[in-house]
Design brief:
The chain has five helices and four strands. By secondary structure, the protein is α+β, with helices and mostly antiparallel strands. Strands 1-4-2-3 form a four-stranded antiparallel β-sheet, sandwiched between helices. Strand 2 and strand 3 form a beta hairpin.
Length: 185
């Protein structure tokens, strides 16, 4: 076994992070999007489990089974460059409406504009995703939808966010990389 030298750069990468990033070919990219879309369309078109009760309970408006991100009004994903929409908490969804494909689920206690003006890894994923669509001349319309009727309590909002991520398996959320990989990070 060869000992590593602390001062000379190795000719071969030691860690995967040192390797150059490979770009998906056109067919692999299309297949990747199709697999995610198939999962999400199955969720969208399958009725959620119905909880039976002996009592007449008021429906929970924060039920992840009842929140449909594809019904939200979409704005340009670069909304953070536009005038502020107020200082309310929300859950937001990044969607490529050309398919449609839910790419990311997030929550914020700040205004969405404040959350996205700073460092946000998802912005890089979106830019790389858009670049690959452009490279292969694939139609896309990436937008952001806001769900404003979210719990004010941060822990409850984060729990709802996690349930939505697990339900839709949005590929830009790190929790879902085990299913879809991390091609845009």
């Amino acid at each position: 076994m060869k000992q590593l030298d602390l001062f000379n750069q190795p000719s071969q990468p030691i860690f995967k992070s040192q390797q150059s990033r490979l770009t998906m070919d056109s067919q692999t990219f299309i297949d990747w999007k199709s697999q995610i879309q198939n999962h999400q369309q199955t969720i969208l078109n399958s009725p959620g489990p119905q909880q039976m009760s002996l009592f007449d309970l008021k429906p929970n408006h924060c039920d992840p089974e009842q929140i449909n991100p594809f019904e939200l009004r979409l704005q340009n994903w670069e909304f953070f460059t536009m005038p502020d929409d107020g200082d309310r908490t929300c859950i937001y969804f990044i969607i490529d409406n050309a398919l449609p494909l839910l790419l990311y689920v997030g929550e914020t206690k700040q205004t969405p504009k404040e959350r996205w003006t700073g460092v946000h890894d998802c912005r890089g994923y979106i830019e790389n995703y858009l670049a690959l669509n452009y490279q292969y001349q694939l139609k896309n319309f990436v937008g952001i939808g806001f769900w404003w009727d979210t719990p004010v309590d941060r822990k409850a909002r984060q729990q709802l966010e996690q349930k939505l991520i697990q339900r839709w398996k949005s590929p830009f959320n790190k929790e879902c990389w085990k299913w879809w990989g991390k091609p845009f990070g």
